[in-house]
Amino acid sequence: MKTQQFKVDNTQSRIDWEGRKVTGVHNGTINLKEGQLLLENGRLSGGSFTIDMASIRILDVTDPATNAQFAGHLASGDFFATEQYPEAFFRITAVDQDYITGDLTIKGITHPVSFSAALALHEDTLTASGKIVVDRTRYGIRFRSGNFFKNLGDTLIYNDFDLNVTFTAKALA
User: Fold this and answer.
1) What are the TM regions of this chain, as residue ranges (predicted)?
2) How many domains does the chain fold into?
3) What pTM was estimated for this model as a whole?
4) At 44, which CATH number?
5) pLDDT tens by residue, 61-116
6) Which of 90, 146, 148, 164 gives the lowest tally of CB atoms within 10 Å of its CB?
């Protein structure tokens, strides 16, 4: 059995997020802090990555003051409490062909998530991409959730948000 370990290249990898509310959509990026992927006999078998939650950026709000206020709110206890929880984590627990299951930890709370991924190996470079749909309420993020608050009208924020992950990783010697 041939096992290969790959280190994620942060400069060539990205996480794009998208959150929806009744009146529209917001999107942005979150930096990857570190990550690794394992292949056994050319197939993904494991891996993990660490997300720098303090790096959350909003791309669709162009007014600097509004953007800063929104970023501060995402960093607050209403959302990700980044001062107390500066990192989020994902660890692969199972791989069935291109379907990945793993443990996602946000704000110190861990739940399993599953998603389809596209993988490609070219010489010593592995690329991987997938869309992880996250129910924020499972991680204690209840701000303006219709599950916990009534009569929100057009201030309701939907529970699910997306993490669109694209990794490039290099084989370790």
Assistant:
1) none
2) 1
3) 0.93
4) 2.40.128.110
5) 999 999 999 999 999 999 999 999 999 999 999 999 889 999 999 999 999 999 99
6) 148
